Amino acid sequence: MTTGEKISALRKKYGYKQEELAELLGVSRQAVSRWESDCAFPETEKLLKMSKLFDCSVDYLLKYDAAESVNERSAESGRAGNFLDGVLKWHYEYKSERTVFGLPLVHINIGLGRTAKGFFAVGFKSLGVFAIGLLACGLFSFGALAVGLIALASLSLGFLSLGAVAFGIFALGGVAVGVITFGGLAVGFFAFGGCAVGGYSFGGYAYGSFVAIGDVARGGIALGGDSAVGTEFSATIEQFEELSDEIYARLDNLPPWLSLFNGWCRGLFDGVLNGTIVLGGN
Fold it and tell me: What is the pTM of this model?
């Protein structure tokens, strides 16, 4: 700090206005203002009076102490560090007295490194029947990463999962992997998507072990808008109507345990025939 900055800080610390300090020292208010802005320097006599008034040494007023400046910066850094530590250590917790199956009915535990465990659990990390958190695991879970019977998250894993990336028996997402999947990219036994890969596949590009329906179709039985390649049977939309009986006959030859999925395929083929389902191509 400069001499002017020290005079200003000490004046404010002791509660003096510039006019009041000027009167005590026998100078004008403008003189005090010039000292504090470092436009002028106080006489030795005035420095001696201020050292007594402010209970400090003349040396302190005159000397620019680099170490003091470093200490002040360290103190400021310490305050910033304390604030950051406070933010990182902050947490909120609520736990209901009522329990269900030995778990609190409601447990909210929000804070870094803390886990919420309850029938209804809310926290950065949460475990419960209903779990909500950045990382959530429960029968019903919602979060950035969710694992559960029904999971909704950016990345979800569950029996029924919905998310940007979804894994499950029923999976819906930008990328979906499961038995029955819907997504921009879908991989599953029964897959719907812009690009679909599975036993039964439906999409812009469809690749199915048993049945593929899409603008471009590759599979056992393939129905495509632009092109179709099937190891058992293939047809484009133009050929489909006259060959539909043969397609259904091919479906009948698939294993009996696939009867449910075969029924769904028949429904989709019927939709293509009656115009309720439209594929691309000519």
Answer: 0.48
